[in-house]
Each structure stands twice: as C-alpha cells, then as structure tokens.
C-alpha cells in the first residue's frame, strides 16, 4: 500500500470500527496492519503505541473520532477526510488542520451530496455557511471567530478557483442513485 499518511475522522466509535473492518477486508494481507483506529476508549498505552507507529509511517491510515485531534502532535499528515457532517465548524477546522502544517503538501476538499446532509436545522449554522459558501471561506472563518479578514495568497478554493477543477465538480453531479447534485470544492490540489 503506497498511501500518503491519512486520517479519516468519524463522529462515532461504531463508525470507526465499521470502517476499519471494511478497509481491512479490502486490503492485501501485507497492508492490513497499515490501517488502524483510534478513539478515546482505548487504553493510554494503546493510544501511545498507535501514535508512535503512525508517526513512524508503519500505520498509513488512521481512522479516528475527534480523539486524534486532541493532543496528538502528528505533523506530516497529507490527507484528512471527514466522514459525514461534523457537529460544528470548530471541530471541522481542528480536523482539517491536521493536514495543513505544510501548505506545499496538503490541500483540502469538500464533497457534499445534498440528499445525505442532515436536516438543515440540525446543522451548526456556521458550519453550513462555511461548507456552502460561494465566497471566500477564510472570510467566513474570520467572521465566525471574530478575526479581521485580510487578503492572503493561496487563500481558499473559492478565491483560487481553477477552471479544470470546476469541470471535475460538474462531472461529480452525475452520481448514480443520488438525488440532488453534490457541491464539490477543492483547495490547492485534488485529493
């Protein structure tokens, strides 16, 4: 398995374990040990061992609840995936921030399928504003967190929109069996 170091975040431990079982079913025998999970219920010793093996590269895919975002100093994560909608905007930003330590190596993307989103009233309004924004996402963040907005290079997918990526988003509109078209945004590179 030649995967970049990745963390996939889930809302619940049961989702984490289910994904771990499925991914290990699909992985070759040599790659099964490169996939593991991490959550708060694991022993301190077990969590420490997982972080050590993830940092060293022995583990390539870490499936986790928000526990991997709290107190885990892992600086070379290339890809972060959020499975389903997180509870709020700060949670999403904390999770995506795991891959933003080196801007030359990381990017972020959001693929939304409207029919799979929770009921609008149940989604944090700040999170909804961020993921559905057609304007600068950094501006949304600055507004939410009470910061002054400043223009910066390589700001966000909305400010750095590339025509090639726009067409890929349009192609994604035709997912078989899905009602409604997905919103597809990308920053820096397609992940």
UniProtKB/TrEMBL annotation:
Alphabetical list of InterPro entries matching this protein: Helicase_C-like, P-loop_NTPase
Domain Helicase C-terminal stretches: 1-152
GO biological process: double-strand break repair via homologous recombination
Reaction(s) this enzyme catalyzes, per UniProt: Couples ATP hydrolysis with the unwinding of duplex DNA by translocating in the 3'-5' direction
Keyword Nucleus in record: yes
Entry EC no(s): 5.6.2.4
One MF annotation (Gene Ontology) recorded for this entry: 3'-5' DNA helicase activity
Family: Belongs to the helicase family. RecQ subfamily.
PANTHER family assigned: DNA HELICASE RECQ FAMILY MEMBER, RECQ-LIKE DNA HELICASE BLM
UniProt protein name: DNA 3'-5' helicase
Organism the protein comes from: Modicella reniformis
Designated gene of the protein: RECQL4_2
